[in-house]
UniProtKB/TrEMBL annotation:
<comment type="function">
    <text>SbcCD cleaves DNA hairpin structures. These structures can inhibit DNA replication and are intermediates in certain DNA recombination reactions. The complex acts as a 3'-&gt;5' double strand exonuclease that can open hairpins. It also has a 5' single-strand endonuclease activity.</text>
</comment>
<keyword id="KW-0269">Exonuclease</keyword>
<dbReference type="Pfam" id="PF00149">
    <property type="entry name" value="Metallophos"/>
</dbReference>
<feature type="domain" description="Calcineurin-like phosphoesterase">
    <location>
        <begin position="15"/>
        <end position="228"/>
    </location>
</feature>
<dbReference type="GO" id="GO:0008408">
    <property type="term" value="F:3'-5' exonuclease activity"/>
</dbReference>
<dbReference type="Pfam" id="PF12320">
    <property type="entry name" value="SbcD_C"/>
</dbReference>
<keyword id="KW-0233">DNA recombination</keyword>
<dbReference type="GO" id="GO:0006260">
    <property type="term" value="P:DNA replication"/>
</dbReference>
<keyword id="KW-0378">Hydrolase</keyword>
<feature type="domain" description="Nuclease SbcCD subunit D C-terminal">
    <location>
        <begin position="273"/>
        <end position="359"/>
    </location>
</feature>
<keyword id="KW-0540">Nuclease</keyword>
<dbReference type="InterPro" id="IPR026843">
    <property type="entry name" value="SbcD_C"/>
</dbReference>
<keyword id="KW-0235">DNA replication</keyword>
<dbReference type="InterPro" id="IPR041796">
    <property type="entry name" value="Mre11_N"/>
</dbReference>
<dbReference type="GO" id="GO:0004519">
    <property type="term" value="F:endonuclease activity"/>
</dbReference>
<dbReference type="InterPro" id="IPR029052">
    <property type="entry name" value="Metallo-depent_PP-like"/>
</dbReference>
<dbReference type="InterPro" id="IPR004843">
    <property type="entry name" value="Calcineurin-like_PHP"/>
</dbReference>
Length: 386
C-alpha cells in the first residue's frame, strides 16, 4: 500500500533543512554518562533553530545509543522533538540507525505522521516518499541484509550493498524526476573514515555501500559515521555526531549541516559541548604539575610515561583532573631491558626492598627489614634441606 505523506507550505525551493545524525542519547564513556552534556547540546540546537529559518529537520539515525534506552534518555529526546515539532511546528524526518530498536523507535509512527513527525524504520517506509512541497524525502533506515533477504525473498542479497541496491532500485521505479529527491539514511559509504565508536560494529567490508547507488538523488543525508568529513562528495553528506563519543574523535568537527535548496549551498555548523573530550601524552610529573596543555575539567584520556613506581596513579591524577576517564601507561622498553639486567645483580633482600619502595614510595623500617631477612633465611634453610 502506497503511503505518500504530504506537508503543505509555501516554501518551495527556499527550503532550509537541518541535517542531524548520531545523537546517541544515553551514551557513556568508561561508565561516565554524557546525558547532561547531550541535554545541553539539544537545548542549544533549539536555540539555533529559533534564530535560524529552518523548514525541515532531518535526523539520520542512532537517536539512542542503546536499543533499550533509559527513561532519562527517552525524556531528553521527547523534550527536543516536542519543542521543535509541536511548539515550533517544524516537520521532523527520522530514520532508525543500527543502535536504535526499529520497533521501539517506530512505535506510534502512523499517528505521529499526522503531526508532521515522520519515522522510517522499515523497508516499506523507505519505498514511498514524504513529500514536502516540491521535495520528496525517502527515509531509508539501517537495514540488515537478512531483513532484506526475507522481504524481497531473494537469497542473493548478502551484503549491505546488495540490500540498499535493491531498495534504491525499487525507489527509482516510483521516483518523480521532476521533483527534488532526497534520501535520508544510516549506512557506511565505501571509503568513509571510521572512528572507534563505529568500528565496534563494522566487520570487514560487509557494510560498504558504493556511492554510485545514489546517482538518482539530488542529495543524500547520512548518519552512521561520526565525522562530517567522512566522505567528500558533491551530493552525499554525513552530518557527523553532535559531540565526541570516543577519544579518537578528539580532533573531529562536531555539529550539524544546513542545506539551503534555494542557494544550493550546504554549510556545516559547529557545536561545542559544555565539557570537551581531550587527549594528551607526557610524563607523570608533567601531568601532576598540569603541564600537558589540556583543560583539567574536560573528559580526559592520558598516556603517561615514568609512572611505573607510582602507587595508584589514577587516584592521584584524579585529584588534579577530576574528569579523567582513561589512563594508559607508556612503557619504555629500553628501560625495561636495562632494569632486567640490573635485577639479575640484586640480592633477594634488595629485590623485596625495591618492590616495597616502588609500591609504597617509602622505605621499610627496621622491624620490617628484620622480618624480611628472617623469612629469606628460613626459605634458604628449607631449600638446603630439600
Amino acid at each position: 500500500m502506497r503511503c505518500v505523506f504530504l506537508y503543505n507550505n509555501n516554501r518551495g525551493e527556499n527550503m532550509r533543512i537541518m541535517h542531524l545524525g548520531d545523537l546517541h542519547i544515553g551514551k557513556t564513556i568508561n561508565q561516565q554518562s554524557l546525558l547532561h552534556e547531550q541535554s545541553i547540546l539539544l537545548n542549544r540546537l533549539i536555540e539555533d533553530i529559533q534564530e535560524t529559518s529552518i523548514d525541515v529537520i532531518v535526523i539520520a539515525g542512532d537517536i539512542y545509543d542503546r536499543s533499550i534506552p533509559s527513561r532519562e534518555a527517552m525524556k531528553i529526546y521527547e523534550t527536543f522533538i516536542y519543542e521543535v515539532n509541536q511548539i515550533m511546528k517544524i516537520p521532523v524526518l527520522v530514520v532508525s540507525g543500527n543502535h536504535d530498536s526499529a520497533e521501539r523507535l517506530g512505535y506510534g509512527k502512523a499517528w505521529y505522521k499526522g503531526h508532521e513527525l515522520y519515522i522510517g524504520t522499515t523497508i516499506d517506509d523507505a519505498l514511498y516518499p514524504v513529500s514536502i512541497d516540491d521535495v520528496d524525502f525517502y527515509l531509508v533506515p539501517y537495514i540488515e541484509p537478512v531483513i532484506a533477504r526475507q522481504y524481497f525473498e531473494d537469497d542473493r542479497i548478502r551484503t549491505h550493498h546488495d540490500t540498499y541496491k535493491r531498495i534504491i532500485e525499487q525507489i527509482e521505479q516510483r521516483m518523480n524526476k521532476d521533483r527534488k529527491n532526497i534520501m535520508v539514511s544510516h549506512l557506511f559509504v565505501a571509503g568513509g573514515k571510521t572512528s572507534a565508536s563505529e568500528r565496534e560494529i563494522i566487520v570487514g567490508t560487509i557494510e560498504n555501500v558504493s556511492p554510485n547507488l545514489f546517482n538518482a538523488f539530488d542529495y543524500v543525508m547520512l548518519g552512521h559515521l561520526h565525522t562530517p568529513d567522512a566522505i567528500h562528495d558533491e551530493k552525499v553528506f554525513y552530518s557527523g555526531s553532535i559531540m565526541k563519543y570516543s577519544f579518537d574523535e578528539v580532533y573531529q568537527r562536531k555539529g550539524y549541516r544546513i542545506f539551503d535548496l534555494d542557494q544550493q549551498q550546504v554549510n556545516f555548523v559547529s557545536l561545542s559541548p559544555p565539557r570537551d573530550l581531550q587527549y594528551a601524552t607526557g610524563t607523570y610529573e608533567d601531568a601532576i604539575k598540569m603541564k600537558l596543555g589540556v583543560d583539567r575539567n574536560s573528559y580526559l584520556k592520558l598516556e603517561l610515561s615514568e609512572m611505573e613506581h607510582i602507587n595508584d596513579p589514577m587516584f592521584k591524577l584524579k585529584q588534579v583532573y577530576p574528569y579523567l576517564l582513561e589512563l594508559k601507561p607508556v612503557i619504555d622498553h629500553k628501560d625495561i631491558r636495562y632494569q632486567q639486567k640490573e635485577v639479575q645483580h640484586l640480592s633477594h633482600f634488595e629485590l623485596v626492598q625495591q618492590f616495597y619502595i616502588d609500591m609504597t614510595e617509602s622505605e621499610m623500617d627496621n622491624t620490617q627489614k628484620n622480618l624480611i631477612e628472617q623469612l629469606i633465611n628460613e626459605s634458604r634453610v628449607l631449600d638446603e634441606t630439600d
